Amino acid sequence: MLIFERSRPGRRNAAQAPNHEAAVSGIPAALLRKGPPLLPEASEMDVVRHYTGLSQKNFSIDTHFYPLGSCTMKYNPRVCNSLAMLPQFLARHPLAPEHTGQGVLACLHDLQEILKDVTGMAGVSLMPMAGAQGEFAGIAMIHAYHDARGDTARTEIIVPDAAHGTNPATAVMCGYTVREIPTNANGDVDLDALRAAVGPQTAGLMLTNPSTLGVFEKQIQAIQKIIHDAGGLLYYDGANLNAILGKVKPGDMGFDVIHMNLHKTFSTPHGGGGPGAGAVGVAQRLLPYLPLPVVARQNATYRCLTEQDLPQSIGHLSAFTGNIGVLLRAYVYARMLGAEGMHRVAEFATLNANYLMAELQKAGFTVAFPQRRASHEFIVSIKPLKDATGISAMDVAKRLLDKGYHPPTTYFPMLVPECLLIEPTETESKETLDGFVAAMKEIWDEAHTTPELVKGAPHTMPVRRLDDVKAARELDLTWKPATSTRAV
Amino acid sequence: MPFIPHTEPDIAAMLASIGAPSIDALFDEIPAALRTGKLNAVPEGMNEMQVTRLMQERAAQDVAMLNFIGAGAYEHHIPAAVWQIATRGEFYSAYTPYQAEASQGTLQLLYEYQTMIASLTGMDVSNASMYDGASGLAEAILMAVRAHKSSRRVLLPTTVSPLYRSVVHCIVKLQNIELVEIPFDTAAGTIDLKALEQHTGSDIAALVIPQPNFFGALEDVDALTAWAHAQGALAIALVNPLTLAVLKAPGNWAGKGADIAVGDGQPLGSPLSSGGPYFGLMCCKQALVRQMPGRIIGRTVDMDGKQGFTLTLQAREQHIRRAKATSNICSNQGLMVTAATIHMALLGVDGLRRVAIASHANTQSLAKLTSGLSGVKPLFSAANFHEVVLQLPKPSVAVLASMAEQGVLGGFDLQPHYPQLGNAILVCATETKTNEDLQRYVDALRHALS
Amino acid sequence: MSNPANLPNNLKYTASHEWVKTEADGTISIGITQHAQELLGDMVFVESPMVGRKLKAKEECAVVESVKAAADIYAPVNGAVVAVNSELDSTPEAINADPYAAWMFKMKPDNAADVAALMDAKAYQAVVDSEAH
Predict the structure, then answer these.
(1) Do domains A79-337 and A344-472 have the same CATH topology?
(2) What are B391-440's pLDDT values in tens digits?
(3) Which of A172, A436, B55, C111 has the fewest CB atoms nearer than 10 Å to its CB?
């Protein structure tokens, strides 16, 4: 039932209405609304029950193992939320004077310093509000760098074919054309193709390392030399930073600019789609272009740098100061981990991924790159199972739901047919991983004995498989009352 | 070690299964020269008690003030139930609802959100949110240019927030889009229609129409929308969703309606939080839906014919369309939208309207009260909603600093952004302010001017 | 995989999987091949070019969208758009049902010889076969 169907005309929630008898004054009638909007008329208890009930229809990290590849669904510590929501933090207006926000600014400044250290970059701006906005900021900085040098013939960004879709989309938003290069059989960049692709038109290369294929790009030193020799810059997509946190710094690999997904590596919540935080880090030569504001510490006081301080900045990405509440959660997490904990993140994320890969291989599943170490994630191809039984990666994913597991990422990266991209993260125990392997074995058996059961899955969710074609052909994007008497 | 559950026997058993001698061996594909891994600036770890102490000390440094600043972020009461429910783990720690069967809670909530926002704005369809109002406006401009097909010129009036205009420049400038500023009528505080008419007949993709505008003043939205359409341009409405409980919905502007509506959803349940996270709302006409960026939820049926909800129109998005996507946007501000949906449901039709009117009335009262002070008066003649520009007889920086010393945030200083206005500040009194609060403002201002 | 026997011999083809049919009046109809519709799956939307628009060969001019993919349609030759099949607006599934009947738009080619120079069924079949490897 929708909240609108719980609505009854005239029912109101007096507790949430100001005791104000005032009326609108001085506004011309032509500028006023003609009729009420379609909002529920419900009691507070109705609303609380409705949305509590909806929450119970979700899988989440707090309720289920969620090995979604490339998404780093690790435990989101509860204390990060409660401390980010301390009343003083919530109450401060973004345009209040800086002396009223020294506490929050200190946290942001410290977080910048921590991120600089773990990534090996010279400067960090926390402002991008999501990974994709971090990518935008990064590529815009590369653009600004070339422009400032009068090097305006560079019109192309190189992207490996295995990259996240945000990479090519970002390059286009920054006015570049995209040149895609292939991946070799080992899952690494095809160096010959890269050499052939670079030239005076090359503005830069966007690379995820470990790649979306779940392996560390071993030739990174050669790649950075090819790009830099061609006069391009190297962009690090931090989607998989969790795999190397505390082990390898992108700055040491030769990257000029990076974004981090704090909602992955620094465990801020995904919130059903966001908000994220896509902090960017840069090498020395890109420092002047960082997005504003950057928090600086001067004479024991924290302040936000402005255009006066960084006149070559690419500018502002949000009306105010980014997703500060998310940044506070990341800061609490970073302080709890500390230096020692940071090292452990990559170690145990990698241990869990390699263990799960080994166990699934033993159970008969085909991994995409058996000759390689897994990073923090790895790919299983269901193609052999599909050829034998007709059961697809989608079927396996849906059947996992019945067994109490959120499925891995399906059909990405597109290079591997019928793929499951599996990322267990460091916060899961061996028992949980063993349980997942057992469930996968059961599905393997079911695929051979009762394939219809798998093809019809899920059977235990609030709904069964949905008609996506109908959803796209007969767009129903808003609810409409049966008899529409409403005006707006 | 925080949040890592492995025991020593676990580690040994797992390494044995892998056939690796040590955890370190799992990194043997990484060139040794790169594996430095020394962290110098990261302090030692803390347990929960220690980090709580640290953050409480930091929070205590943030000084509470009686706030009369709006300028794009508004202090409103948020019902206790909003964040108690939004931070339930099932909402808080879920991913984007790609697996629809295991995400019906989030998906249905987003469908309800789309319905509420589309109705408030009077538009046909809504997406599931953008990052914030400013970046949402930039995306709306890109969308309008895509939809218009022939022109890349967009008129951006200076009555749009200067903070928003700065973000728009940053995001669209690399795509060869020409942004043309339209000045405002310094008497009315609204778009200068004569200046606008100089563009009649020229090649324009879109006109941005803020309502209320940055000065809190109400634009002649019908005339502006009609003008845009007469030029073959799209009308982009930039709105505050709370005010739409009272003000004419963009879908009805000039009868035919604006083409795209965007704005910041912060007034609907997002705490001020020094600036974020908030969320951007984005709605449009049905005909433009395939040009809209961001995630969209549709209602459909499952294999048994039962109602269900799913992400739809995904072929527009970067994970499928890659370089040809409508935008690179991937994640949105889902949790803020969760809060906003619960917020709107809790307030309902009556509550939202009362909050809007009370904010309007408080601001009118404050303008009246301050007019009793010598040299202080509302600067503009146009009707306003819940913000007002006050002209001061003394330098605004000094006046605001003095008020701050008295514990009152007296307003947003317009001087750096609109030097032609002289000593002018933008003031907002929402429903959270009592008569005593308003009087305290007047007293603080009087003292600052003395 | 499409069966060679299904490739109509009276049509011309492009490497980007459009088919081209020369009509009696000298205009050409353009649609997508059986192979392309199989790859894309259930069609949900077709975006057609504006009538009157001048196109260059290989210019993007239309989009077909399925649930999981979207593909650009390219002009096969230089020419102007003279008609679009508006029935596909409400029934995009017609492309799945019979791709060679579901024409998307018609063009008046600048030069009829350009059409004659397009691939025939046999040459196109070779393209499809090579993609399978």
Answers:
(1) no
(2) 999 999 999 999 999 999 999 999 999 999 999 999 999 999 999 999 99
(3) C111
The answer to whether A340 contacts chain B (CB < 8 Å) is yes
Burial of A308 (0-12, 13-18, 19+ CB in 10 A): exposed
- Decide if A464 and B56 are in contact by the 8 Å CB cutoff: no
Does domain B80-342 correspond to CATH entry 3.40.640.10? yes
The residue among B206, B208, B232 whose CA lies nearest residue B221 is B208
Q: Is A30 on the interface with B (CB under 8 A)?
A: yes
Binding partners of C (≥3 Cβ pairs within 8 A): A, B
- Map out the domains of chain A as residue ranges: 79-337, 344-472
Strands B260-264 and B280-284: antiparallel
Which chain C positions have a beta carbon within 8 Å of B324's beta carbon? 70, 72
Whether chain A has a CB inside 8 Å of the CB on B21: the answer is no
Q: Which fold has domain A344-472?
A: Aspartate Aminotransferase, domain 1 (3.90.1150)
pLDDT at residue C2 is higher than 60: no
Question: CB of A469 within 8 Å of any CB in chain C?
Answer: yes
In this complex, is the C-beta atom of A468 within 8 Å of any C-beta atom belonging to chain C? yes
| Rounded Cα gap, residues A359 and A352, in angstroms | 11
ipTM computed for the complex? 0.97
Contact B321 C70 (CB under 8 A): yes
pLDDT tens column, B344-365 = 999 999 999 999 999 999 999 9
Q: How many secondary structure helices (H) and strands (E) does chain B include?
A: 13, 17
Q: What is the pLDDT of residues B32-87, one digit of tens each?
A: 999 877 899 999 999 999 999 999 999 999 988 999 999 999 999 999 999 999 99
Q: With contacts defined as CB-CB under 8 Å, which chain C residues touch B320? A: 68-70
B298 phi and psi, to 5 degrees? -125, 155
CB contact under 8 A, B315 and C69: yes
Overall fold of domain C8-125: OB fold (Dihydrolipoamide Acetyltransferase, E2P) (2.40.50)
Q: For residues C92, C98, C101 and C104, what is the CA-based torsion angle, rounded to 10 degrees?
A: 30
In the stretch 187-206 of chain A, residues with CB closer than 8 A to chain B read none
Chain A residues lying within 8 Å of B58, measured CB to CB? 103-104, 106-107
Distance from CA of A449 to the nearest CA of B (A): 22
Contact A38 B119 (CB under 8 A): yes
User: ω into residue A37 within 30 of 0, thus cis?
Assistant: no
Q: Tell me the nearest-neighbour CA distance from B37 into chain A, angstroms.
A: 5
Cβ proximity of A116 and A109 under 8 Å: no
Interatomic CA distance for residues B249 and B252, integer angstroms:
6
- Topology of domain A79-337 in CATH is Aspartate Aminotransferase; domain 2 (3.40.640)
Any idea where the domains of chain B sit in the sequence?
66-75+351-449, 80-342
Kindly report, residue by residue over A17-65, the tens digit of the pLDDT.
988 777 888 999 999 999 999 999 999 999 999 999 999 999 999 999 9
Q: What is the CATH number of domain B66-75+351-449?
A: 3.90.1150.10
Residues of A in contact with C65 (CB under 8 A): 472
Burial of B369 (0-12, 13-18, 19+ CB in 10 A): middle
d(CA A481, CA A485): 8
Residue A206 confidence (pLDDT) above 60: yes
Taking CB atoms and an 8 Å cutoff, what residues of chain B touch C65?
290, 315
Domains of chain C: which residue ranges?
A: 8-125
pLDDT exceeds cutoff 80 at A358: yes
Q: Report yes or no: B120 and B237 within 8 Å, Cβ to Cβ.
A: no
pLDDT in tens, C4-15: 457 899 999 999
Q: Is B185 helix (H, G, I), strand (E, B) or coil?
A: strand
Q: Do A336 and B353 lie within an 8 Å CB cutoff?
A: no
